[in-house]
Amino acid sequence: MINGYGGFTIIIRVEIYLTHCDNFDSILGFCIFKFFKRIPLAILPYQKINRMNTPLIICIIIGLFLLGGIRIVFEYKRAIKFRFGKYVKTLQPGFRWIIPIIDTIQIVDIRVITFNIDSQEVMTEDNVPCSIDGVVFFRINDPEKAVLEVEEYKFAITQLAQAALRDVCGKVELDTILSKREEMGKNIKAIVEQETEEWGIVIIDVKIKDIQLPENMRRMMANQAEAERSRQERIILALAEEQAAGKLLEAGKLIDQSPSAIKLRLYQTLANIASEKNSTILFPFPEEVLPRNTK
């Protein structure tokens, strides 16, 4: 016990081994070490000091301090640097060093990010219930805003995309959703992009993946499609008959203009009939007595 040092009573327990410590990772231990180094040796009569190890210990401490601040930022990422919780700057790719404990960083991926829109129950304008899901493609254009302006940008974009999908698909009929998926995706993208622009996030594309319909609606749509195909089949057959009748009329007019053409056509018809070899052809009168058009 030593009295009268600086007006205080200092009780020092002997055998202090600060100078013999092998590891100074703790900042508190480092501060204690520096404190006792400043106390005059006169008040530490029992301290064993090995002055030859002090420079080595200091070098180890400095080395650990420098190694603790090394950070590697990849090319497809950016690091948002904070000092005492306050934004300082955005670290670019490469080898970077920060002050341990004082500085912290938050890594942001600037590549194209993809996530699914969970299936949403939607009631269309023509009162047809359906389940629709999709996928969103986006990229972070400004890492600073993506971290500072919104708490969790992925969760926020997910909620926006789900709300926009229900809003857009609920204002159109089912046939429009089935036939104009690209247009529906562009409308959803416009709504989401309007909100995320302030967060430094660019929406690249929104796609509608799958549309689930009730079983009875599927049967009705299948019957409708079958009836439509039957109607088209009948129309095509009628058009074919109409065109064939027109061509036959034109052919008859051409044949009537030439007696030899009528004879050749007759022979061709007889040849087609004779190819079957299962019928007998009788001519009740010679061909010469057939009526002919004389002009």
Task: Indicate the CATH class of the largest domain.
Answer: Alpha Beta
The number of distinct β-strands equals 10
* Helical/strand content category: alpha+beta
Number of alpha- plus pi-helical segments: 8
Judging by the overall fold, what is the CATH architecture of the largest domain?
A: 2-Layer Sandwich
Strand order in the sheet with the most strands? 5-4-7
Q: Which overall shape is indicated by the principal axes computed on the Cα atoms?
A: elongated
Which features does this protein show?
295 residues, alpha+beta, Tetrahydropterin Synthase, Chain A, 4 domains, three-stranded antiparallel sheet, elongated, disordered N terminus
Structure commentary:
The chain has 295 residues and is an alpha+beta fold. The chain has four domains: 2-67, no CATH class; 70-109, no CATH class; 113-213, Tetrahydropterin Synthase, Chain A (2-Layer Sandwich), CATH 3.30.479.30; 219-289. Helices cover 44% and strands 24% of the residues. The chain is built from eight helices and ten strands. The strands form four sheets. Strands 5-4-7 form a three-stranded antiparallel beta sheet. It has a three-stranded antiparallel beta sheet with strand order 8-9-10. Strands 1-2 form a two-stranded antiparallel sheet. Strand 8 (113-123) and strand 9 (129-140) form a beta hairpin. It is elongated, with a radius of gyration of 46 Å.
